[in-house]
């Protein structure tokens, strides 16, 4: 039988042999220099971010932890608290959508702990805030305050959301409620100052807008009166559904009301330039006018055509020494041009003397200004296109 000393010596020999082999043989399950970070990230304690989907085969440790968190046998308060903690971890990772899911699951437990429910709502409000869901964030802040009226974070979140939503009066109210609890809270003081400043600016802008609206209304009324006095006819758009408070106004009175609420109201140009008819300081009306050249499918737009100017004043400038590039035959000299306006109802043309003023033309009994922009057709006298154009329509002299 071997002695105890002999047995110890044998054990030492075995350990020495094992250590020698350990130095020479590489451990098959060890982390390599290339993959140690990846392997560390699989260990729950060292994970930087949680995986999107927890597969029990790939992440057995995480699956076990999750089963503990969602254990329905525990008290509802503990379950809600665990889901809150889970949401907080997602929040730290800036995974706000998953945080909202966890906080919502916690609230669905309907535990009786008002503090837990208040925190769940406040934290979900923060997640919604970071996703830009301001109204949802504000709703959660309101709910949190119902569970715990003195929850300072909920009051701060509510004030912040109201500020973002430009509800400055409400933001001030949230701030005042919070400052009653913490009069020196720096964040609430900053929010109150910002809300007060924005409220003052908004009120000032509203006053300016009201003054500007009154001025524009006065100018529209003066313009309409001047147009009516000249006998210029406006072709109004189809009537909109009438409100009960409105009377059966027509003509210029109806146009005056239309001016306040319609884009195509008989005086607003539809041109991309945004130009519109206006009354000058000397009582002269200036119109945006469109010249059409159907032969070449071209147009010219005059943004402020004085009613006292003639067509020749503009044509001589536009077709003087330098002709447009699309006039390849060089025939659009102002001396060769004829001016017409179209009578859509009669499908006819009315010729206008180029030396006639715009006002006299607009006063013609068959002329109607459409969408605030008088338009005229320009043709070359005696050209084949002009003859063809005439053959398809009746022509009258002004």
Question: In terms of topology, how is this protein built?
Answer:
Blueprint: H1 4-24, H2 36-40, H3 60-69, H4 76-92, H5 96-108, H6 114-130, H7 134-147, H8 152-164, H9 168-181, H10 186-230, E1 234-235, H11 251-261, E2 278-279, E3 285-293, E4 298-306, H12 311-318, E5 337-343, E6 348-352, H13 358-362, E7 369-370, E8 375-380, H14 384-391, E9 394-397
Parallel strand pairs: 1-7, 3-8, 6-9
Antiparallel strand pairs: 2-3, 3-4, 5-6, 5-8
What does this structure look like?
Helices cover 51% and strands 12% of the residues. The protein is α/β, with parallel strands linked by helices and 398 residues long. Among the domains are: 70-201, Tetratricopeptide repeat domain (Serine Threonine Protein Phosphatase 5, Tetratricopeptide repeat, Alpha Horseshoe), CATH 1.25.40.10; 278-397, Ubiquitin-like (UB roll) (Roll). Strands 2, 3, 4, 5, 6, 8 and 9 form a seven-stranded mixed β-sheet that branches. A two-stranded parallel sheet has the order 1-7. Helix 7 (134-147) packs antiparallel against helix 8 (152-164). The termini are far apart.
Which of globular, elongated, flat, extended, rod-shaped describes the shape?
Answer: elongated
State the fourth-level CATH superfamily of the domain at 70-201.
Tetratricopeptide repeat domain
CATH topology call of the domain at 70-201: Serine Threonine Protein Phosphatase 5, Tetratricopeptide repeat
Low-confidence stretches: 245-266
Radius of gyration: 41 Å
Order of SSEs: HHHHHHHHHHEHEEEHEEHEEHE
């Amino acid at each position: 039988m071997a002695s105890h000393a002999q047995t110890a010596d044998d054990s030492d020999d075995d350990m020495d042999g094992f250590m020698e082999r350990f130095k020479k043989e590489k451990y098959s399950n060890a982390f390599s220099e290339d993959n140690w970070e990846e392997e560390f990230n699989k260990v729950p304690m060292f994970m930087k971010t949680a995986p999107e989907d927890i597969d029990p085969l790939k992440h057995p440790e995480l699956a076990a932890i999750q089963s503990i968190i969602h254990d329905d046998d525990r008290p509802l308060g503990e379950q809600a608290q665990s889901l809150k903690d889970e949401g907080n971890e997602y929040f730290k990772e800036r995974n706000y959508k998953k945080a909202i899911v966890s906080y919502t699951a916690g609230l669905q437990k309907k535990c009786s702990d008002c503090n837990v429910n208040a925190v769940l709502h406040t934290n979900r409000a923060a997640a919604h805030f970071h996703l830009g869901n301001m109204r949802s964030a504000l709703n959660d802040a309101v709910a949190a305050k119902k569970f715990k009226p003195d929850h300072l974070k909920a009051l701060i979140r509510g004030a912040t959301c109201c500020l973002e939503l430009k509800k400055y009066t409400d933001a001030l109210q949230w701030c005042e409620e919070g400052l009653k609890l913490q009069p020196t809270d720096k964040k609430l003081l900053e929010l109150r100052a910002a809300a007060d400043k924005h409220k003052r600016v908004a009120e000032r802008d509203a006053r300016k807008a009201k003054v500007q609206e009154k001025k524009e209304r006065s100018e529209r009324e003066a313009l309409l009166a001047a147009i009516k006095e000249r006998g210029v006819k406006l072709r109004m758009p189809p009537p909109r559904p009438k409100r009960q408070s409105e009377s059966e106004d027509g003509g210029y009175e109806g146009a005056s009301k239309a001016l306040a609420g319609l884009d195509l109201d008989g005086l607003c140009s539809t041109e991309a330039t945004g130009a519109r008819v206006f009354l000058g300081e000397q009582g002269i009306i200036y119109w945006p006018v469109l010249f059409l050249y159907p032969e070449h499918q071209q147009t010219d737009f005059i943004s402020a055509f004085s009613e006292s100017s003639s067509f020749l004043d503009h044509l001589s400038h536009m077709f003087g020494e330098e002709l447009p590039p699309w006039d390849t035959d060089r025939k659009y000299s102002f001396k060769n041009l004829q001016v017409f306006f179209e009578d859509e109802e009669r499908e006819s043309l009315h010729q206008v003397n180029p030396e006639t003023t715009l006002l006299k033309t607009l006063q013609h009994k068959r002329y109607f200004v459409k969408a605030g922009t008088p338009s005229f057709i320009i043709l070359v006298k005696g050209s084949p296109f002009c003859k063809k154009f005439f053959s398809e329509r009746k022509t009258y002299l002004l």
